[in-house]
Amino acid sequence: MDQATLRAHLALVLAMVIWGSSFIALKFAVTEIPPMIVVFLRMAVGSVSFLVVWPWLRHGFVYQKGDWKYLVGMALFEPCLYFLFEAQALQYTSAGQAGMVTSILPIMVAATAFIFLGERNSLRQWTGFFIAVTGVVWMTVTSEVSDQAPNALLGNFLEFMAMSMAVGYTLLVKHLTKRYSAFLLTALQSFVGALFFLPLSLASEWPAHLSMPVIGAIVYLGLVVTIGGYGLYNYSMHHVTASTAAGYTNLIPVVSLMFSVLLLGERLVLMQWLAVVLVFAGVFLSHDRKPIIPKDVPPGITG
């Protein structure tokens, strides 16, 4: 494995840690204020941050004719539709169960990438995907019932819809990172997301004041998660296949559970710890050993 590929894998691990922690922050914030307000403020914080560094960020940006449909499609899938579903999902299901649903993303991306990108996954990778999914399901099934999930069926379905949007996002980013920098794409997501969620937030009932913990959660989501998580994930897409990058999302429910133990005082039983080991084993098996993406990989979306 060359240095660039190693850095890409490390970036993916760090991105998953950040995204795993985001479930805790988002769940905490939406318990106090409407979800559309939370997402708008999150996107607004990210947008302001990118505006500060825009004079340096825009250097090297050369728009290529016809890319508007890929750029608009990427931003529509994520953050717009993705967070529209996920923010609502966390009102009805727990952060742990929402994290569990993310485990189906690798299977969805692998199947779609096979069709649109021509990516070939070995039996070893498919085995790793299914082992990781099994571990995530096992980890969730053996957990204790929480009153944080008043309607888990609805919440988990909404999270599934969010994952469907993530599939489209992953494939489009796979194409766009060949032309534009990861941070430029992340900035575009923040700007479009802020505009998209502004009218939705204005239609919600704003609280009289925001507590400092909620403000802290929103700033964390806007700065660390939006800029850091997406930036690291988009960077990695230069050096690994779309299905390999998506395979790392199996770490998200594990990280979410770890943060729940550390920050919320939740406890794991022995079976859950065994399931965590199974998830890591599955992610390891699903790694693609090819150092870089072949140059002749076709665009993720055509037409």
Tell me roughly what share of residues is in helical segments: over 70%
Q: What is the SS-derived class?
A: mainly alpha
Largest sheet: none
Number of domains: 1
Strand content bin? under 5%
Number of strands: 0
Radius of gyration: 19 Å
Average pLDDT number: 81
Care to describe what's here?
- It is built from 13 helices and no strands.
- It is mainly α.
- The chain has one domain (3-285).
- The longest helix has 28 residues, at 3-30.
- The protein is globular.
- Residues 290-303 have low confidence and may be disordered.
Q: Helices, strands, pairings?
A:
Elements (H helix, E strand, L loop, with lengths): L2 H28 L4 H18 L1 H4 L10 H25 L2 H7 L3 H12 L6 H19 L10 H25 L5 H21 L9 H25 L5 H6 L3 H14 L5 H16 L18
Considering the chains and any ligands shown, give keywords for the structure.
transmembrane, transmembrane helix, 303 residues, 73% helix, mainly alpha, membrane, AA-Vitamin_Transporters
Put the structure in a nutshell.
The chain has helices at residues 3-30, 35-52, 54-57, 68-92, 95-101, 105-116, 123-141, 152-176, 182-202, 212-236, 242-247, 251-264, 270-285. It is mostly helical and 303 residues long.
